[in-house]
Amino acid sequence: MDHIVTVQDAVTAFADFMEPTNAELDAIELEMPAILADVDLLDAQIIAMDRTPTELDVRRIRRARRRLLAALVNQAGTAHRGGVA
Q1: Element spanning 4, H or E
Q2: What are the pLDDT digits (tens) for 7-56?
Q3: Which of 2, 71, 83, 84 could cross-link with 78 by S-S, CB 3.0 to 4.6 Å?
Q4: Rounded alpha-carbon distances, angstroms, from residue 78 to 12, 29, 30, 81, 84
Q5: Count of alpha carbons within 13 Å of 30, Cβ hemisphere only?
Q6: Integer Cα distance of 56 and 26 in angstroms
Q7: Claim: this prediction has a pTM higher than 0.90
Q8: Angle between helix 55-80 and helix 22-49 axes, rounded to 10 deg
Q9: How far apart are CA 49 and CA 37, in angstroms?
Q10: Which residues contact residue 27 at a Cβ distance below 8 angstroms, ignoring those fewer than 6 apart?
Q11: Within 13 Å of residue 32, how many CA atoms lie on the same side as its CB?
C-alpha cells in the first residue's frame, strides 16, 4: 500500500487552525498604507504608459511617489519606535 503523505500535507496546509497570528495581522496592518500607495503609483504609471504623459499624468505620478515615500517613512518610523518590524 502506498502512503500519500504529500496529499495530507496539502490538505492540512490550509486547515482552519492555520490562521494568521496577531503579530502577522499587525504586520499587514502596518504595511497596508505603503501597499495602497504603491498600487496608486502603479495605476498612475500604467495610465501614462501608452502615451506621452500630460502635465496631469506627471503630477499624478509625482503625488503618488510622495505618498509612497511618506508611507514607507512612516512605516519605518513605527517599526523603529517599537511597532511590528
Answers
A1: none
A2: 555 555 666 677 889 999 999 999 999 999 999 999 999 999 999 999 99
A3: 83
A4: 35, 12, 8, 5, 8
A5: 19
A6: 36
A7: no
A8: 160
A9: 18
A10: 84, 85
A11: 7
